[in-house]
């Protein structure tokens, strides 16, 4: 029991899939194992990862919460079964801090100007025709998430008016779903699709995150220059008026 509790707290936790928003990657009733160790070491989610996160701001408002019995509560507490009480969501990370993300009607999702090839999208769905968006720049320490069943997923696209602008704070992320553990005939890993390894997708994001630094430094450097120039003009005017036999006015 102690070992199970430690594993649940620091290493791996089981979660049950309650909806169809991640079909066909995940089916309702699937049990997934979530890696909780990586966030403990400060690593942030990567593009393409399927992540579990706490409700960032009323996304699950109005959704019913099951009432498990005492034994179910105990088993979920020590990590031997998924928790039925926690209000968590599971989606795919599409863009991370510094990325520009967009999707126009009839078009693909683009990250940093590069179109994503998304074979994991539910058959018959479009990338975003039901809810186009962007272009949006993902703030630092936040992610943009979407369900694989695009026409049946209330994801970042539908919450752009909330306190986080539809983005999910990284500190709300529980971990990355790595394995479908149950049922046995559904066992599979959840790798990052190759489309997120496109050449150039990272360089643009890095440039966006660092581009503000020169602007900030330039602004800070301009302040003393302006003050020095002002003092110099005041001193010059004072000297001129003193030479003319007048008392300078207060600047």
TrEMBL record:
Keywords: Hydrolase, Membrane, Protease, Transmembrane, Transmembrane helix. The keyword Protease applies. It is found in: Cell membrane; Membrane. InterPro entries: LexA/Signal_pep-like_sf (IPR036286), Pept_S26A_signal_pept_1 (IPR000223), Pept_S26A_signal_pept_1_CS (IPR019758), Peptidase_S26 (IPR019533). The chain crosses the membrane at residues 205-228. The keyword Membrane applies. The active site is at residues 21, 91. Its EC number is 3.4.21.89. Residues 2-182 form the Peptidase S26 domain. GO terms for biological process: signal peptide processing. GO terms for molecular function: serine-type endopeptidase activity; signal peptidase activity. It is a single-pass type II membrane protein. One of its GO terms (cellular component) is plasma membrane. Pfam families: Peptidase_S26 (PF10502). CDD domains: S26_SPase_I (cd06530). It catalyses: Cleavage of hydrophobic, N-terminal signal or leader sequences from secreted and periplasmic proteins. Belongs to the peptidase S26 family. This is Signal peptidase I. It comes from Streptomyces qinzhouensis. The lineage of its organism: Bacteria, Bacillati, Actinomycetota, Actinomycetes, Kitasatosporales.
